[in-house]
C-alpha cells in the first residue's frame, strides 16, 4: 500500500538540505531557496510551482514569524506548528466539506483523556499555531473549521496522535507527515508491517514523498495489519511510558505480555564469561543470575550507575548532535566503553542507542584525508550496532537491513594504509581480500533484507539500488583479484617447470 501524505513538513535543521515539496535530498547543484521567505528550499522550479498552493499562505506567515522572533534561534517555527498550519490552510484550499478535510477530522482524538503531562505542551502548541496563522480572536479561526478553543485542542490531539515520522530513503528522520488512511493501523511492539519512504525508481517526483506500508511477513486474511508507534528496540518500560503519554494506552501485544528469561534490550553478559546472559538488575529487583550457568551478578550498584549515567549522556549527546557535534562525539566516545565494561550486551539500552549515535557522529566527522584508524573505528562501531539489532528485529526489518548495508559499504571503502604485518585471525576488521569478502557477504545479506523491508516491487528502494550497485562493483574487484592470484600461481608453476 502506498499513499501520498495529506501534509508533510521538514524539521527545521533539514529545511536547507531537502526539498520542501518532494523531500528529495540536495544534489551537487544544490537547492533553490524561496526568494520571499528565504526559509524553504526546492529541487527546481517544478517542485516550487507544485508546492505553491500550500506555500503561498505559509510564505507570508514565515516572514511575519521571523520578523517578530526575539532571536535567530527561534526565527523559524517548529515542524509541528508548520504542519498544523498546512493542515488548516489545506482544509481551506480543499474545502471544509471535502473528503480531504473529512479524513483529517476522522483521525482519532485523545482530547478527553489527555495525560496531565500533555497539558502544557498542547497549550503552548495552540498559542503558537494561533500566532502563526496571524489571528487575534477565536472568531477568526472559523474559516479553518475551528469554532471554539476545544476544536483547536481536538485538532492538536489528532495531530499528535496520528503523526508519522517523515524519513529519508535511508531512514534518517527529516520531518513529520499526516496520512489519515494509514493512521488507522494499530500498534504492536512486534509489528507485522512498517512505514517507509523508499523513493522507488519508478515513482514520479510529483508523487513524492510517497509513504509505503510494507508487510514484513505474510499476513493471513482477516488478520490486523499492525505497525510500531514507538522505537521497538527500547525496553518495555520506556515503550509503555511513551505510548501512555502520547497515545494514552498500555500495549498488550505478545512481546509485552510474554515473560522472557532475559529481554535482550535489558541484558548483561554472564559475569563468569560462560557466554550466557543475565537480566539487567533494577532498584526494585537487584538479584540477577545468568540463565545458563546461574552465576550471580555481584557488581549491581556499578551496573545501575553505568546505566543511569549512560541514559543521561545519551539524552545530552542527542540534544547536542547538531548544535555541538564535537562535544556530542566526545560524550559518546567516553560512555560507550563504560557501558561495555559494565557488561551490557550490544542490544541493551542505552548501549545500542549510544552506539548508533556514536556511529553517526563518527561518519559525520570523517576527515577528507581518511586514515586507516578512523575508518576502522567507524567499521567496528557499525558492526557492534548491526550485531545489536540482529537479536531485536526480525530479518527484513528496514532498520536492520540499512544498518547491515552501511556496514558492508564501510568495509568496501578502499583502505588508506592497510597493515603490512601478517593478518591476525582474531583482528577486526580484517584487511585485504578477507575484508572485501566480508563486505561482499554483508552487502548480499543486506540486499536480501532490503527487498523485504522496502518492498520487492520497489527493488529495495533507493538504498536497495545503492547496495546492488556496490555488490556489482565488489564482484568485479574480487574477480580481478581472483584472476590475479590465478595468473600468479600459473606463472610460478611455469617458472618451476622451466628450471
Overall description:
The protein has 14 helices and twelve strands. The protein is mainly alpha-helical and 499 residues long. The strands form five sheets. Strands 1-9-8 form a three-stranded antiparallel sheet, with no helix packed on it. The chain has a three-stranded antiparallel sheet with strand order 2-6-5. It has a two-stranded antiparallel sheet with strand order 3-4. β5 and β6 form a beta hairpin. The longest helix is centred in the C-terminal third of the chain and has 38 residues. The termini are far apart. The model has no long low-confidence stretch (mean pLDDT 91).
Give short descriptive properties of this protein:
499 residues; mainly alpha; three-stranded antiparallel beta sheet; globular
Task: Summarize the entry for a quick read.
With 499 residues, the chain is mainly alpha-helical. The protein has helices spanning 45-68, 79-94, 99-106, 116-133, 149-162, 236-247, 254-257, 300-320, 325-341, 351-364, 372-390, 398-411, 433-453, 461-498, and strands at 2-3, 7-10, 32-33, 41-42, 163-167, 173-178, 186-187, 193-196, 211-215, 226-227, 267-269, 277-279. 48% of the residues lie in helices and 8% in strands.
What is the element layout, followed by pairings?
Blueprint: E1 2-3, E2 7-10, E3 32-33, E4 41-42, H1 45-68, H2 79-94, H3 99-106, H4 116-133, H5 149-162, E5 163-167, E6 173-178, E7 186-187, E8 193-196, E9 211-215, E10 226-227, H6 236-247, H7 254-257, E11 267-269, E12 277-279, H8 300-320, H9 325-341, H10 351-364, H11 372-390, H12 398-411, H13 433-453, H14 461-498
Parallel strand pairs: 7-10
Antiparallel strand pairs: 1-9, 2-6, 3-4, 5-6, 8-9, 11-12
Amino acid at each position: 500500500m502506498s499513499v501520498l501524505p495529506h501534509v508533510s513538513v521538514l524539521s527545521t535543521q533539514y529545511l536547507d538540505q531537502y526539498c520542501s515539496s518532494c523531500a528529495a535530498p540536495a544534489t551537487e547543484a544544490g537547492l533553490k531557496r524561496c526568494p520571499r521567505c528565504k526559509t524553504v528550499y526546492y529541487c527546481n522550479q517544478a517542485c516550487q510551482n507544485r508546492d505553491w498552493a500550500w506555500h503561498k499562505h505559509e510564505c507570508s506567515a514565515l516572514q511575519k514569524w521571523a520578523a517578530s522572533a526575539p532571536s535567530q534561534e527561534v526565527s523559524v517555527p517548529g515542524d509541528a506548528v508548520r504542519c498544523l498550519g498546512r493542515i488548516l490552510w489545506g482544509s481551506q484550499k480543499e474545502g471544509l466539506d471535502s473528503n480531504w478535510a473529512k479524513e483529517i477530522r476522522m483521525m482519532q482524538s485523545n482530547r478527553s483523556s489527555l495525560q496531565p503531562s500533555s497539558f502544557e505542551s498542547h497549550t503552548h502548541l495552540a498559542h503558537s499555531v494561533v500566532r502563526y496563522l496571524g489571528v487575534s480572536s477565536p472568531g477568526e479561526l472559523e474559516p479553518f473549521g475551528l469554532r471554539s478553543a476545544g476544536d483547536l485542542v481536538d485538532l492538536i490531539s489528532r495531530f499528535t496522535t496520528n503523526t508519522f515520522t517523515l524519513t529519508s530513503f535511508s531512514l534518517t528522520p527529516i520531518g513529520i507527515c499526516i496520512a489519515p488512511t494509514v493512521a488507522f493501523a494499530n500498534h504492536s511492539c512486534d509489528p507485522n508491517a512498517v512505514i517507509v519512504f523508499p523513493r522507488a525508481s519508478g515513482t514520479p517526483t510529483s508523487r513524492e514523498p510517497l509513504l509505503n506500508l510494507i508487510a514484513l511477513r505474510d499476513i493471513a486474511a482477516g488478520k490486523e495489519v499492525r505497525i510500531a508507534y514507538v522505537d521497538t528496540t527500547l525496553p518495555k518500560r520506556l515503550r509503555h511510558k511513551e505510548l501512555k503519554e502520547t497515545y494514552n494506552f498500555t500495549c498488550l501485544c505478545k512481546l509485552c505480555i510474554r515473560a522472557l528469561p532475559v529481554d535482550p534490550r535489558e541484558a548483561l553478559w554472564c559475569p563468569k564469561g560462560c557466554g550466557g546472559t543475565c537480566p539487567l538488575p533494577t532498584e526494585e529487583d537487584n538479584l540477577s543470575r545468568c540463565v545458563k550457568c546461574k552465576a550471580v551478578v555481584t557488581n549491581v550498584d556499578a551496573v545501575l550507575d553505568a546505566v543511569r549515567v549512560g541514559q543521561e549522556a545519551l539524552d545530552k549527546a542527542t540534544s547536542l548532535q547538531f548544535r555541538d557535534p564535537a562535544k556530542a562525539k566526545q560524550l559518546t566516545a567516553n560512555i560507550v566503553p563504560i557501558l561495555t565494561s559494565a557488561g551490557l550486551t550490544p542490544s541493551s539500552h542505552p548501549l545500542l542507542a549510544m552506539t548508533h549515535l556514536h556511529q553517526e557522529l563518527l561518519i559525520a566527522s570523517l576527515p577528507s584525508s581518511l586514515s586507516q584508524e578512523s575508518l576502522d573505528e567507524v567499521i567496528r562501531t557499525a558492526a557492534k550496532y548491526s550485531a545489536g539489532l540482529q537479536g531485536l528485529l526480525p530479518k527484513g526489518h528496514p532498520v536492520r537491513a540499512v544498518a547491515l548495508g552501511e556496514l558492508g559499504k564501510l568495509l568496501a571503502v578502499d583502505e588508506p594504509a592497510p597493515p603490512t604485518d601478517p593478518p591476525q585471525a582474531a583482528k577486526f576488521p580484517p584487511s585485504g581480500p578477507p575484508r572485501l569478502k566480508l563486505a561482499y557477504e554483508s552487502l548480499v545479506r543486506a540486499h536480501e533484507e532490503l527487498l523485504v523491508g522496502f518492498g520487492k516491487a520497489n527493488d529495495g528502494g533507493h538504498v536497495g539500488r545503492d547496495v546492488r550497485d556496490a555488490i556489482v562493483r565488489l564482484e568485479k574487484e574480487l574477480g580481478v583479484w581472483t584472476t590475479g592470484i590465478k595468473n600468479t600461481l600459473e606463472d610460478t608453476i611455469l617458472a618451476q617447470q622451466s628450471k
